[in-house]
Write a structure and sequence with these properties.
The protein has 293 residues and is α/β, with parallel strands linked by helices. The chain contains ten helices and 14 strands. The chain starts with 5 loop residues before the first strand and ends with a helix. 43% of the residues are buried.
Length: 293
């Protein structure tokens, strides 16, 4: 009998004790969320281990994870060497985007392992290129419902009609993808020394733009901060042209104390910025140029 994942409260990083307290089972597989201090656990080809916990996750702040890899790829590695989780084990996730759903489904045995699933997660997490499976699962993330996402993924794979709610959410995402492409086609982005930036009327998912702007090392999206005049929300993402070792957080944090995220993406949504977009972008260009030298 296959097991089902347990959905934890959404947190950027989870304490090890929270994971241990989730269930008194033989093993706990924490999929696609960071555990505080995981970089000090025992490193494995599929992530990090300590006590009863196997952290199958690509968010750890370690050199090996600062590349285009996903938790789905790590789950595929685990299953290829050890098999799926067994009855008596517990699978944990704390969000339900593409990578979380796929990594958990692989570990549970709900999806058959295949390289295509790893490619799908990379498309969702890093490249942003159009991918039917990735777009569906990213669209359904807001439902926070593993079974709902898995059911509609199976409908998609079988070529059957999606649930009505899933269809609405997918159409919404595809409309955003089309809007992103239109912005690029209209040459609405400024591109200066590897930094592509744009001033928007409202926010849009930055994940779409890496594939659309292949010459960019850094992509910046500025949108007005609601109810705060002359302040900006900034989303930033490394582009495909970024050199190995470049970290968007290390690049931006010194000029924007509200910025946070990971090596390849982040935002300043907690406090915004009062620096005008062009001035902000020019400061990033200057820092990027210095780092390149």
């Amino acid at each position: 009998m296959l097991i089902n994942p347990v959905l934890l409260k959404l947190e950027k990083e989870v304490a090890l004790q929270t994971v241990l307290d989730a269930a008194e089972t033989d093993q706990l597989f924490a999929c696609d969320f960071g555990i505080i201090g995981a970089k000090h656990f025992v490193e494995k080809p599929w992530g990090y281990e300590r006590d009863r916990v196997v952290n199958i996750d690509h968010h750890a702040l370690t050199a090996v994870m600062r590349r285009q890899i996903s938790s789905t790829n790590l789950a595929l590695r685990y299953v290829s060497q050890n098999g799926i989780a067994q009855r008596g084990d517990t699978i944990l996730i704390n969000h339900t985007d593409c990578d979380s759903i796929l990594s958990a489904a692989i570990m549970c045995g709900h999806l058959k392992s295949s390289p295509e699933l790893g490619e799908t997660a990379i498309a969702a997490d890093h490249i942003g290129e159009e991918n039917a499976t990735a777009d569906l699962l990213q669209a359904l993330d807001e439902k926070r419902d593993y079974q709902f996402s898995l059911r509609n993924l199976r409908l998609l794979m079988a070529g059957d009609s999606l649930d009505a709610t899933a269809k609405v959410l997918l159409d919404k995402r595809l409309a955003q993808r089309a809007a992103a492409k239109e912005l690029v086609d209209k040459k609405a982005f400024h591109l200066q020394n590897g930094v592509a930036w744009i001033e928007l009327e409202s926010a849009i998912d930055d994940a779409f733009f890496s594939a659309l702007l292949p010459d960019a090392m850094v992509i910046l999206l500025f949108s007005p901060r609601p109810r705060e005049a002359r302040k900006w929300n900034v989303k930033a993402r490394l582009g495909i042209a970024a050199h190995p070792g470049l970290s968007v957080e290390q690049l931006i944090k010194p000029i924007d104390g509200n910025f946070g995220g990971r090596w390849n993406a982040g935002s300043n949504k907690r406090g915004g910025s009062s620096v005008p977009p062009q001035e902000y972008a020019e400061a990033i260009v200057a820092r990027l140029t210095k780092s390149e030298k």
